[in-house]
Design a protein that fits this description.
253 residues; 3 helices; 7-stranded antiparallel beta sheet
């Protein structure tokens, strides 16, 4: 009986060790720790087999129906289905390479002039993001927000430093991005964005607020200023939108 007991516990310990090593490898491959869910009831964000990425990596589907808001978002003209880094990282004075792939179905509704952000790096708190990636019509824009000024009123956002169209006609096919950033409050800041291996943006200079030093990556679907769409198109809520993500990674440079 003692031998059976010991063998059983040894077997369980080995299983635990294998699981722990596998988990650490997976974490090391992505370069991220845990992500937290930030979404209202009715939205979804799960691994899916409905669509595949050419690399064969896992694909996560996000769905955001109109009216899916909660708490401050409902009071501030916003709604979201996002995953957010649990801990702040992306340190000022450090350099990182980020990769992310996104797929918007061909029938994705256009919610302009409401903003649709699908990937961003943002300091902790209620201030503005440092950088965002946005779907505008059938194109993707890269936005660098003004690091020299702190955001005082989220309902009256400051004018960005850079707004650049980095991809056109994106619906219905995967868009693969590699972003190299040296986060800095000074002129040694550096941003280089590549799409499918081709450089589409390069910017030197400050790229993080003077009061910030640690940030979180957020990705999914985030819509702000819903009233702009409703005023133009009528109705009581926005249409449901879906997006697919793969290859979400970070590595130090």
């Amino acid at each position: 009986m003692i031998q059976v007991f010991l063998m059983r516990h040894l077997f369980l310990a080995c299983l635990f060790l294998i699981f722990a090593v596998s988990a650490s490898i997976a974490s090391a491959q992505s370069g991220f720790g845990k992500f937290d869910r930030d979404a209202a009831r009715g939205s979804t964000m799960g691994i899916t087999r409905n669509i595949a990425h050419p690399s064969g990596t896992a694909v996560r589907a996000f769905s955001l129906p109109g009216g899916a808001c909660r708490g401050d978002d409902c009071r501030n003209d916003r709604e979201r289905a996002e995953l957010i880094e649990s801990r702040t990282a992306n340190l000022e004075g450090h350099s990182y390479r980020y990769t992310f792939s996104v797929f918007f179905p061909a029938d994705t509704p256009d919610v302009g002039p409401t903003n649709l952000i699908f990937w961003q790096v943002k300091p902790h708190g209620t201030g503005k993001p440092s950088i965002t990636m946005e779907l505008v019509g059938n194109d993707i824009n890269f936005v660098l927000h003004d690091p020299s000024r702190l955001q005082g009123d989220r309902m009256n956002p400051l004018r960005p430093v850079v707004i650049r169209r980095v991809a056109r006609g994106v619906r219905g096919r995967w868009q693969d991005f590699v972003l190299d950033v040296h986060w800095s409050k000074r002129n040694d800041g550096r941003i280089v964005l590549k799409r499918e291996g081709r450089e589409v943006l390069s910017h030197n200079g400050p790229n993080i607020d003077s009061k910030s030093s640690r940030q979180r990556v957020r990705y999914g679907l985030y819509r702000s200023f819903l009233s702009r769409y409703l005023q133009r198109n009528g109705g009581s809520k926005l249409p449901t939108q879906t997006a697919y993500f793969a290859n979400i990674t970070r590595a130090p440079l």
